[in-house]
Design brief:
Layout (H helix, E strand, L loop, with lengths): L4 E4 L8 E7 L3 H5 L14 E9 L2 E11 L10 E7 L2 H14 L2 E2 L4 H8 L5 H12 L3 H11 L2 H25 L11 H30 L1 E6 L6 H9 L17 E7 L2 E7 L9 H16 L2 E7 L6 H9 L5 E6 L17 E3 L8 H12 L15 H22 L4 H19 L5 H8 L7
Parallel strand pairs: 1-6, 7-9, 7-10, 10-11, 11-12
Antiparallel strand pairs: 1-2, 2-5, 3-4, 4-5, 8-9
Helix pairs in contact: 4-5, 5-7, 6-13, 7-12, 12-13
């Protein structure tokens, strides 16, 4: 924390502008000697025009922002140098700053310093990274929600409720002779824990949903050969990505494409037709189809309206019992041979890829399954890292364990230990309690200049 760090904060390459960020106790002192203007006497949050120089040689024409602690992202003195976006001038300025005494920043070190200096908590830190990486409007909204500290507030409230229970237990144990102290009964603890567990369940479900929204929805299009899977993929992508013929088994490997559907990122995967085959290559494709189905967030099973339902179809329908899925009866422009009564307890749509009939309805159904309504941001608290989600689930399991202990009349001092453990687990999510290992894990995926 005593070092002054530097990094290129924009993508290195050809462009109009590059930004080099410097943060730390000597930020202004290290930049001033290589700048033609006077930065030492500049007021905070001002921009100065001039040139970066090495001795008498002018390196580049720049704009320099001076931001003094504590009103900066890292809460340290911060300089941002806006130079021309070529690789050579950007790298040369970075080299000069390293010679002045700056240390090259590690991944996520600026955001890490913002956390360590109390500017943000760990849920907000992750939201910064989410905001950098988002590909869709929905992902941007939920990342921005967390950047405002909504999840931090929610978790802090849960910790406060746990602390209130712990405080009352401590007082009851230490001062049993006082009559005016509220007695903490088992029923009161049970009632409060049920409420806290419900809040944790909401956080866990929202966190899982946020992962889908942020990373995109993986959609596997499966079915027997020649039912129209590739045509459906091509319709969604608006291009002939997959080869379409009347010959069964044309698609032997997975074909992928991504689109944005009203702000929702869809990763579409057309799989090989599922059937018995002696062809070695096609057999590998069929195996991949099953793997893709199991890993997908949504499965679209395509059936042929012009054929009777097969045993393969029945097995595939049965395999979707625990999956989010849509069954598409394709080729509804042909004479129907498929018995609709064979399909139960599923979302069923009818389409054809000749006139594109029903395919827009399919898009709407996907949005309905995954998109929240316009008010979803009002209470959409979540954590975005795997480590934080694991902590939430750990806290929930601990509550379930306490509930079982209360049923089995465990001593209240044992219950107290478990409650303290939950309080600490939630503190690790926001960073109220942390280890260096935890911080390293959380910031290792950040880009260097953030």
């Amino acid at each position: 924390m005593e070092d002054t760090i530097v990094a290129i904060s924009t993508s290195l390459g050809m462009g109009a502008i590059s930004i080099i960020r410097v943060s730390g106790p000597n930020a202004i002192n290290y930049v001033d000697p290589i700048f033609t203007g006077d930065l030492l006497n500049k007021e905070s949050h001002t921009i100065s025009y001039g040139f970066i120089k090495e001795q008498e040689e002018v390196i580049d024409e720049v704009l320099i922002s001076v931001m003094k602690a504590p009103k900066t992202f890292t809460m340290e003195d911060t300089i941002e140098i806006n130079c021309h976006g070529g690789i050579a001038p950007t790298k040369k300025i970075l080299e000069l700053l390293l010679k002045q005494g700056c240390k090259l920043a590690q991944r996520g070190e600026f955001t890490k310093r913002a956390f360590l200096n109390g500017r943000i908590d760990l849920t907000e830190a992750r939201a910064v990274m989410d905001l950098v990486n988002v590909d869709s409007e929905s992902a941007r909204k939920i990342a921005m929600h967390n950047l405002k500290g909504k999840t931090k507030d929610k978790i802090n409230k849960l910790r406060k409720r746990l602390l209130d229970i712990l405080t009352n237990i401590e007082v009851n144990i230490d001062y049993p002779e006082y009559l005016d102290i509220e007695v903490v009964t088992i029923d009161k603890i049970k009632k409060e824990l049920i409420s806290i567990k419900e809040e944790l369940n909401r956080l866990i479900e929202n966190s899982k949903n946020s992962k889908v929204i942020t990373n995109g929805i993986k959609i596997a299009i499966i079915g027997r050969p020649n039912v129209g899977k590739s045509s459906i993929l091509n319709h969604f992508l608006g291009m002939e990505k997959a080869i379409v013929t009347d010959i069964p088994g044309t698609t032997r490997d997975i074909v992928e494409g991504s689109i944005l559907l009203d702000g929702l990122l869809l990763h579409l995967i057309d799989t090989a037709g599922i059937r018995d085959t002696d062809d070695v290559v096609e057999k590998i494709g069929v195996e991949k189809s099953f793997e893709t189905k199991d890993e997908a967030d949504l499965v679209i099973l395509v059936l042929n309206n012009a054929e009777e339902i097969s045993n393969y179809d029945k097995d595939l329908i049965a395999s979707l019992a625990d999956k989010k899925s849509i069954i598409v009866i394709n080729k509804n422009d042909l004479n129907a041979k498929l018995d609709r009564n064979e399909i139960k307890n599923n979302i069923v749509l009818e389409t054809n890829t000749v006139t594109d009939n029903g395919l827009d309805i399919l898009k709407e159904k996907i949005k309905e399954l995954f998109l929240f309504d316009n008010n979803f941001m009002e209470d959409f608290n979540y954590v975005s890292s795997t480590e934080q989600l694991t902590k939430l689930e750990e806290a929930k399991e601990s509550i379930i364990s306490i509930e079982e202990g209360l049923v089995n009349n465990l001593p209240i001092d044992i219950i107290e230990i478990d409650l303290k453990n939950i309080w600490m687990i939630l503190g690790e999510i926001t960073g109220e309690i942390y280890t260096e290992e935890l911080l390293d894990a959380l910031f290792q995926d950040f880009c260097v200049g953030k």
